[in-house]
Design a protein that fits this description.
UDP-N-acetylmuramoyl-L-alanine:D-glutamate ligase; five-stranded mixed sheet; nine-stranded mixed sheet; single chain
C-alpha cells in the first residue's frame, strides 16, 4: 500500500551521520597536487591536510543570510581566488534535507550527529531545521564542529573531511530519553558508511533495533576507504542491511575488500545482494550509481538498469552532494512505500537538481512526478 505524504508521522525517517560545515571552493589541479589529493575522491584529513583549511578560510568573507534560505548556505563568500563559501554539510544530513524538500511536510526526518559548542554548530542547526529536519545533536564542548574541504575542479570534486566534533559521537546519546523516543518513532533507519569510522557500535545498535521491529535498515558505502579500512565493522553490519547504496568506485572497493572475483558492477551487486542477511522477509536491495550512466537496481536476483537524463556540460555547476541527493530522493519515496524503481527515479531527479547548484543546495519547490 502506498502512503500519501500527509499521512506520514513525524520522525518516520531517522538518520545518523557526521554533521560538517562544508568549505566549498572552485579551485584547480595545482591545489590538489599541493596536498596530494585526487579528483572525485573522499578522504579523512591527515596532519598534512590541516593547512588546507586555513588556506581556504582565508578566502572566505562571512555575510549573513536571511533565515529559512532554501539554499541552506549559512554564509556566502565575497569574490576570492577560490570563490570559497560555507555550506551546511555532512552526507546523511544532506540526504535528509533533500528528502524533506521532496516530501514538503516538515519533521518527517530526524537526525543524530555530534557538533561542537560553537557558532558553526548553531548555524548548522538553524539551517537544517529551516529545511524541515528535526535535529538532535550531541554537543561536545571540547572540540570544534567538523569541517569538510570541498575542492571543485570543473565537474569534479575532492572531499577532505576533518571530523573534529563529529567523531566524538558516543552511543550513550542514543540512550537519552529524547533520543529513545526518536528511535521508537522511526520506521526507516539510515546510516552512512562514513559513520563507521566514528561509532560503529551506534550504527549496530540502530541496526539491531530495526531488525527487532522489522523495519528497513539502509546504508551507504559512502567512499572506497570505508570498505578498504573498516571491513570488520562493515562485515558485522551487512546482515542487517536491507538497502545498500554505492557508486561504481565504492562497489569496486567493496568487491576487492570482500574477495568478490569480478569487476562487472552487475555481478558485484548480485554478489552483495546474496550475502547473508538476518531478515529473510525482505530481499536485499543494492543500488549502484554510475554518474550519467544508468543506475543499476538489484532486488534479490532481479536486475534493472534505470536511465539517467544527461545534462549539458554548461548545466553542471557542482557535483558535490550528488550522491547525498540521490540517497535523499530515494529515501523520500521509500517512506511513501513506493516501488524501488520509483525510488531510483526520484534519486536521479534530486541528484540532477543538486548538481545544477553550488553545494548540496536546492531552490524552489520540488516537482518530482513518477512517470
Amino acid at each position: 500500500m502506498q502512503i500519501e505524504t500527509q499521512q506520514l508521522n513525524e520522525g518516520t525517517l531517522l538518520g545518523i551521520g557526521n554533521p560538517l560545515l562544508d568549505i566549498s571552493a572552485n579551485t584547480d589541479d595545482a591545489l590538489l597536487q599541493k596536498y596530494g589529493l585526487k579528483a572525485d575522491d573522499a578522504i579523512m584529513a591527515g596532519e598534512q591536510h590541516m593547512p588546507l583549511y586555513k588556506e581556504l578560510m582565508e578566502k572566505v568573507t562571512l555575510k549573513a543570510e536571511p533565515a529559512g534560505n532554501q539554499a541552506c548556505s549559512p554564509c556566502t563568500a565575497a569574490k576570492a581566488d577560490y570563490h570559497a563559501e560555507f555550506i551546511a554539510g555532512g552526507s546523511v544530513q544532506n540526504s535528509l534535507r533533500v528528502a524533506q524538500w521532496i516530501l514538503k511536510k516538515p519533521r518527517i526526518c530526524t537526525y543524530f550527529g555530534c557538533v561542537g559548542d560553537d557558532d558553526y554548530a548553531r548555524i548548522l542547526k538553524e539551517r537544517v531545521i529551516a529545511d524541515g529536519v528535526s535535529v538532535h545533536y550531541q554537543v561536545n564542548k571540547e572540540t570544534p564542529t567538523g569541517t569538510c574541504a570541498v575542492l571543485i575542479t570543473g565537474t569534479h570534486r575532492s572531499l577532505v573531511a576533518n571530523l573534529a566534533a563529529a567523531q566524538k559521537f558516543t552511543a550513550d546519546h542514543l540512550a537519552k530519553e529524547e533520543s529513545r523516543k526518536c528511535i521508537e518513532a522511526s520506521k526507516i533507519i539510515y546510516a552512512s558508511g562514513f559513520f563507521i569510522a566514528v561509532s560503529p557500535e551506534s550504527i549496530l545498535q540502530l541496526a539491531k533495533h530495526a531488525h527487532s521491529k522489522n523495519l528497513p535498515f539502509v546504508m551507504n558505502l559512502s567512499a572506497p576507504f570505508v570498505s578498504q579500512f573498516f571491513k570488520e565493522p562493515l562485515e558485522k553490519l551487512l546482515p542487517y542491511i536491507d538497502v545498500l547504496f554505492g557508486n561504481e568506485s565504492e562497489a569496486e572497493a567493496f568487491a576487492q575488500a570482500f574477495d568478490i572475483d569480478s569487476k562487472k558492477l552487475q555481478e558485484i551487486g548480485l554478489k552483495i545482494s546474496a550475502m547473508p542477511k538476518l531478515n529473510s522477509q525482505r530481499q536485499r536491495v543494492v543500488c549502484i550509481t554510475q554518474g550519467c550512466d544508468p543506475v543499476i537496481l538489484i532486488e534479490g536476483s532481479k536486475v534493472d538498469y534505470i536511465p539517467v537524463q544527461k545534462l549539458e556540460r554548461e548545466q553542471i555547476v557542482d557535483t558535490n552532494g550528488a550522491g547525498d541527493a540521490f540517497s535523499g530522493g530515494f529515501l523520500s519515496q521509500m517512506v511513501l512505500n513506493k516501488p524501488y524503481a520509483t525510488c531510483v527515479k526520484c534519486g536521479i531527479y534530486t541528484a540532477a537538481h543538486i548538481i545544477q547548484h553550488s553545494g548540496c543546495t536546492f531552490e524552489g519547490e520540488s516537482k518530482f512526478v513518477d512517470c
